[in-house]
Design goal:
heterodimer, A: mainly alpha, two-stranded antiparallel sheet, 5 helices, 2 strands, B: alpha+beta, 2 domains, 52% helix
């Protein structure tokens, strides 16, 4: 493929990644106490800190998502996205390893669920895919439909 | 062959730095504006205080004719969204009879001594809790009756936040008002037995009052006043906090002598676990 085609592919990947982050943040930002509750359910962070993370996370996801969709500061935004997703992966692996039965709360919801209803492999697979996309954009941020091209 | 790279193109389009700062600032501004806007929408939706509490006053005032209590019915709810603190409710307040203290669980049969402790964490609106009560309730009642376990009930209310209503807090308050007259456990039984089929429908004020009548709360007027003023609201918030801090984030959670018990639906499991704990 020519470089131009790759840019097109990366542009689409970038926009898709951004949209997923915006949706994930948007679904949570309308119920911040629930978001805090979902973070606490991981039992990974101290109680109060988990509350703050739960309140801040949706806004951060939306901002990073917007930057990605617009293609503004793509490399920085992709790096932030990669960091976020690494944190999510650590959380899910932790919950799985600890034998917790929780919903990841990735798109709202969260908290304990019946042991048979956990979906850790699916949640991890989705996160790994998003991590791959983020790292690709960190390595090669130049992509189609990007504001970065305009200035 | 060198890896294709955009250096040449980038150099050709040499961006002016003023432009970049300008556009960057604009994007940052828009992002912040969007987030702030969403935040406000979120707070408007998730604050039960804006609509929930007045509904209680109106509802029960009309049904019981004790409209005079309306003034106390307006007790400001602890704004669930006031701060990320959520987590920091009042540190003292009214404690219902039978509770171990402010923000502490309810002991159903304190007379039981030297027997295993059965901790039950339940939210009045949790369907799985109603299921648990349906399947294991009679066994638990039997164990309590014979003082074979000390039953400690940790009433949780986080489903109000998830379902965007205030039914868990109101039902919990109703149970604690009943506790003052020795009817906590039967009241909770009535609540679970009448749980609406669709999660999120919640309980009406009339239903909550009906539970008090059906379990034989003797002084109904006192119960009514206690219920209308949400006397135990601060206690309920602190109790939720206590449970969450102890690592319980789902209901029902059943513990025997502090160890979480995995149940599969057979009441005999419970009896066996109690026997084993006694051992």
């Amino acid at each position: 493929m020519t470089e131009r085609r790759w840019e097109l592919v990366r542009g689409l990947v970038r926009i898709a990644l951004g949209l997923v982050l915006i949706v994930a943040g948007g679904l949570k930002i309308t119920n911040l106490p629930a978001s805090a509750f979902a973070v606490r359910a991981y039992q990974l962070l101290p109680y109060d800190l988990a509350g703050y993370v739960g309140y801040a996370l949706p806004a951060i996801e939306i901002i990073v998502g917007l930057l990605l969709v617009l293609g503004a500061f793509t490399r920085v935004a992709a790096a932030l996205s990669a960091l976020l997703i690494v944190a999510f992966i650590i959380g899910i692996v932790w919950a799985w390893a600890q034998g917790l039965s929780i919903d990841c709360g990735c798109f709202g919801g969260g908290g304990s669920i019946e042991p048979g209803r956990t979906a850790y492999p699916l949640e991890l697979g989705r996160d790994l895919l998003m991590l791959g996309a983020s790292l690709w954009l960190v390595r090669a941020p130049r992509s189609a439909f990007a504001l970065d091209d305009r200035f | 062959m060198p890896r294709p790279d955009a250096t040449d193109k980038l150099a050709a389009t040499a961006p002016s730095s003023t432009n970049r700062i300008l556009i960057g600032g604009l994007i940052a501004l828009v992002s912040v504006a969007v987030v702030v806007a969403l935040l406000f929408i979120g707070i408007g939706k998730s604050n039960p205080g804006s609509s929930g509490t007045p509904a209680i006053t109106a509802g029960s005032g009309a049904s019981a004719g004790t409209g005079g209590a309306a003034a106390t019915g307006g007790t400001a709810p602890t704004g669930a969204t006031s701060a990320p603190g959520t987590a920091n409710p009042a540190s003292n307040g009214a404690v219902p009879k039978g509770a171990l203290g402010f923000g502490q669980a309810m002991v159903v049969n304190p007379q039981a001594q030297g027997v295993p402790t059965l901790d039950v964490y339940e939210d009045p609106q949790c369907p799985a809790c109603a299921l648990f009560e349906g399947r294991y309730g009679p066994t638990v009642a039997q164990l309590v009756q014979n003082n074979q376990v000390k039953l400690v009930v940790h009433t949780m209310t986080f489903l109000d936040m998830m379902l965007r209503n205030d039914s868990s807090v109101r039902a919990a308050n109703g149970a604690f008002c009943a506790a003052d007259q020795g009817k906590f456990y039967p009241y909770m039984g009535a609540v679970y037995a009448a749980q609406p089929a669709k999660e999120g429908t919640g309980y009406t004020d009339d239903q909550l009052k009906q539970f008090a009548v059906s379990v034989g709360v003797a002084d109904l007027a006192t119960w009514q006043t206690c219920q209308q003023s949400l006397t135990y609201q601060a206690h309920i918030a602190a109790l939720e906090d206590t449970s969450e801090k102890s690592g319980v984030t789902g209901t029902p959670t059943i513990k025997i002598n502090g160890t979480v018990l995995k149940l599969t639906g057979n009441p005999a499991e419970l009896t066996a676990a109690v026997q084993a704990a006694k051992g």
